[in-house]
């Protein structure tokens, strides 16, 4: 009897929540504008680096630009050349309200005319690359009210999720393709009751899993109670104060995750919940830097990365950590803005503190990014790294305005 050499068909159900398939958010932009798209060669270099790091699932954000189709082509070519290369994609379709990103006032009650085309492009790519695209995410932070430029009501997301689920039923898309929306924890019912609507409840019933975001770093400014050092910890060493604050940051994320799970279960629904985005910037000259909550630096970012990976892997939660590489277009007018500094690897090809251990293990040997070998930031000097670390403020100090 002949034994089949055919590889098992890998599905979203196999990889989500599987610690052998680490997830990450990816944008390969090297310049201050997205007008300069990463080349196929640059995308391949990035994929080889991420594969070496154990990453197997990437999250992308839109199919309006060439990056997503080029990325899928790059992965496909790498797979064709090397049968052991494995990478899957959570393909994001960007969703806007009417008048988003224009001089006109956004109309949050009506969706953008662009959305239908975006969904069609995502469908086409999922059909073209069924071996790579395992998830489609309808919208990114498209329901949360602080996304004032573009947010829509849950009924818009529900409409497109139902559309994609119907395409699965009709056989036009694989029945194994999972459909979700990736949004803030509050948008999924984990926060303010203003979000607790029947449209949201229907959306939770419609998606294959919930993809929720949690950002304690941002909340170190906007909701700082958990972050500030309590009076009884004033006697601790600086590193002990930081470690205690990072443990509280982890707990903050865990509580937001649990709040989403609890809301879902109160509806009588039980399906997977994963983290579509979380991260911690390594630099900031705004709310999170030396003149603000003092959260952003490489040491704290590294601790957060470790804590989140340990927790989510042990609980079999996928965590699309934000993000793989620094992207300077995000806050192009402010090079020191936090949005530019969420990557695990900077624009000089240096691995930040979070993954110094991977450099030590030699996993990047022979790999380059933009012609540079992957080395450590601070030349690997932890003493130099710690010299730039800020201690979280005492609750009794309140030296900056919240």
UniProtKB/TrEMBL annotation:
Compartments (UniProt record): Cell membrane
Gene Ontology BP, a term: cell wall organization
Keyword RNA-binding among record annotations: no
The entry's keywords: Carbohydrate metabolism, Cell membrane, Cell wall biogenesis/degradation, Glycoprotein, Hydrolase, Membrane, Polysaccharide degradation
GO terms of molecular function: hydrolase activity
Function: Glucanases play a role in cell expansion during growth, in cell-cell fusion during mating, and in spore release during sporulation. This enzyme may be involved in beta-glucan degradation. Active on laminarin and lichenan.
Name of the protein in question: Endo-1,3-beta-glucanase btgC
Organism name: Hyunsoonleella jejuensis
